[in-house]
Design goal:
single chain, six-stranded mixed β-sheet, Nucleotidyltransferase, domain 5, alpha/beta, about 525 residues
């Protein structure tokens, strides 16, 4: 019996979607309510899939997950690690200390400012020391935080280029505090800029335990169900990484849900360039795909009120979903959301006998929804007579407001003039206008669009990237680029890829206009296979 079945999950705010695939064939689908702890909802969806008996557990080759664990923990300030923060950069970088600009409640949640240490050290771009590393100061700092912190974040000036001071600091901390304390090195997390890279590193250190507990729970659930298959986690760019690698780099998962939806859309539709519109119960995510992957954001990404330079998809979220409330006064529509009935749609919407007019009800009245999706247990409109009683003027006005909101969002994400193709996904894809949309040449509803994100998690490609600085006056350009390529391949291998399968997705060269000579930043992104 071959191992050719893949199971994937996409955790949303309302539902956790699950799929079981063999090749491109979807054997089973599931939607379970997302639980407060997230993990229980995933396990429930897993049991639904297994109970269909569409495949034997011995056939399962991998289990993959797009998760909101880390995002929720940061936003809600819950279950975060207490972080010891080391910056290697005194005396050059003392003017702006770590955690500058952070929300106060998040500072408190990770242990406060008393665990911050700015240590003499840091590097110039060419490898010279700004100052020698002060090892005694590191040892003294460890004595102060022993027993007070359970995670460490280390950030050195220009450490993505020359990481030796960060590595030596980690070695000293392990000697002082033990081998079990998790340590995050900034040179593995983000790009060269100091403050955003430091923020990203600290956030990563703060959610290590959250991710570890989630992965341990999933590993236990998989083992208890006699599934002997590796577990993978979706990254922000739509690729995946092994669960063991994800434990150390949970910050790479903060935008994994939208990224998985993009990859699923490409996989099912065969379209590599265009716009993705992922409609849920509460919101709609709009993204752009370039050569099969989500376009990366070119601006600073804010997570939980903190500016970072984490790689994230260029994404726009708008307050429009199946449960969005249509606000009326007399016979006029005065507003569309942003409030939503969310997972209470089946209790509160007019179509289900409730008192509230929603986007779903507008779609039913306009004839957009005329079928029940198999993955949902309830009928799409058991109280359709309530919808038929609604004033046509209200329905038409709400329909136009929904249509306009979609058109504006798509137009804002486009980078070229003219009409483009749009792939509509998610359980709410049936409840929004799909014809006559300005700026959209064609709306495509791919097979299994309602669980597209879960399908996207099963695409077995490992992703990684690396950066470096090249001085083209003293080194060969090709040799400098090859060094960064090898570093990116190393990271892909650590994340679970077969080394010889790793291929380059793109190479960027960005000149440093503010530096003398011919210096530039080189950035390489790669992907690799899990299986031969």
């Amino acid at each position: 019996m071959g191992k050719d079945v893949r199971i994937g999950f996409d955790v949303g705010g309302t539902f956790t979607d699950g799929v079981m695939l063999r090749g491109k064939d979807v054997l089973a689908k599931a939607k379970a309510l997302t639980s407060e702890d997230v993990t229980s909802g995933i396990i429930h969806a897993l049991d639904i899939l297994l109970n269909t008996n569409k495949a034997e557990v011995a056939e399962i080759a991998l289990v993959s997950l797009g998760t909101t664990h880390t995002t929720n923990a940061i936003i809600e300030r819950r279950n975060l690690n207490k972080v010891g923060i080391f910056r290697l950069g005194a005396p050059a970088t003392t003017a702006i200390p770590p955690l500058t600009g952070w929300p106060n409640d998040l500072k408190i949640a990770i242990g406060g400012e008393e665990n911050i240490f700015i240590i003499r050290g840091g590097k110039e771009y060419d490898g010279r020391d700004i100052a020698p590393l002060d090892e005694d100061a590191i040892k003294n700092a460890c004595k102060k935080i022993a027993g007070k912190v359970d995670s460490i974040a280390i950030t050195g000036v220009f450490s993505p280029i020359i990481p030796d001071q960060e590595e030596r600091t980690a070695e000293i901390i392990r000697q002082e505090l033990g081998d079990n304390i998790p340590i995050t090195l900034s040179n593995h997390i983000a790009s060269i800029s100091l403050l955003e890279r430091e923020n990203s590193t600290i956030l990563n250190a703060s959610v290590i335990t959250v991710m570890r507990k989630a992965i341990d729970a999933l590993k236990t659930a998989v083992k208890e169900r006699d599934i002997n298959a590796p577990l993978f986690i979706v990254q922000n760019d739509g690729t995946i990484m092994s669960a063991d690698y994800a434990v150390n780099y949970p910050i790479f998962t903060v935008a994994s849900g939208p990224a998985a939806s993009v990859r699923g859309a490409v996989y099912l539709s065969g379209i590599d360039n265009g716009v993705i519109v992922d409609i849920g119960g509460t919101s709609t995510d709009v993204a752009f795909i370039v050569n099969g992957f989500p376009r990366e954001s070119s601006v600073t990404v804010t997570i939980g009120g903190v500016k970072t330079n984490i790689r994230c998809p260029d994404l726009m979220s708008i307050a429009l979903g199946g449960g969005t409330i249509v606000k009326t006064r007399s016979q006029d529509v005065i507003g569309l959301g942003p409030e939503s009935v969310g997972y209470n749609l089946v209790k509160l919407a007019k179509s289900f006998g409730g008192p509230i007019i929603t986007t779903h009800d507008v779609a039913v009245a306009k004839g957009l929804v005329n079928q029940k999706l198999d993955v949902f247990e309830s009928d799409f409109a058991p109280y359709i007579e309530n919808v038929k009683k609604l004033d046509k003027k209200i329905i038409d006005a709400a329909y136009e407001a929904i249509k306009k909101r979609l058109e504006v969002a798509v137009d804002q994400m486009k980078t070229v003039a003219g009409d483009i193709k749009a792939i509509f996904l998610g359980g709410g894809a049936l409840v929004v206008p799909r014809e006559g949309l300005e700026g959209i040449s064609e709306v495509i509803l791919p097979p299994h669009f309602e669980v597209c994100g879960a399908i996207g998690t099963t695409i077995a490609e490992i992703g990684a990237y690396a950066e470096g600085v090249a001085d083209l006056e003293i080194e060969d350009r090709n040799e400098a680029i090859n060094k960064v390529i090898e570093k990116a391949k190393d990271e892909a291998q650590k994340a679970g890829a077969i080394r010889h399968s790793v291929e380059i997705l793109d190479i960027e060269e960005i000149p440093f206009a503010y530096m003398p000579g011919k210096r530039e930043k080189v950035r390489v992104r790669v992907k690799g296979k899990i299986f031969e």
